[in-house]
Amino acid sequence: AVVSQIAVYNRILSAAEIGELTAKADLEAAIAKYESLTMNNYTFASWTAAQSAYGAAIVVDANAAATQAEVRQAAVALWAALDALKGLEFDRGSQPASVTIRKGMKYQINIQSNNPDTLFYISSNANATVDANGLVTAVKTGSAVITVIDSWAQQYFTVTINITS
To answer: What is d(CA 7, CA 105) in angstroms, rounded to the nearest whole number?
Structure first.
């Protein structure tokens, strides 16, 4: 059965008023869900989209003159953005903690990440260089520690490169 009226405070709510209440409750539930999440657990791109939908939802939620259609649209957009959030993957995977290569050789660091735009590679010294994609070049004998940082996730791994002649 479809409810077309509900008695509230000694008056009857219309179906339109009931719709407004449920749309508003749905929007507020979506806002609460977003606010319960931690941004660094999701990829930068998917979080940015959710953040945009959240911003729009907050504006509509605060607007007492917003129509039921505007409220419903904001709720649908925010729920869709929340459903599209991609969990962050950043781990060592099969990358060994230490590698030995010869001077002049190259080695590709392979960290598992679905957020490559926020990865940075840093060499501890001039024994080895590393480019923006994690390609290490052995320059001098000795060792170097390559730090792989995901600036978005605020996590890092290190890989020691031992360089022989």
So the answer is: 79
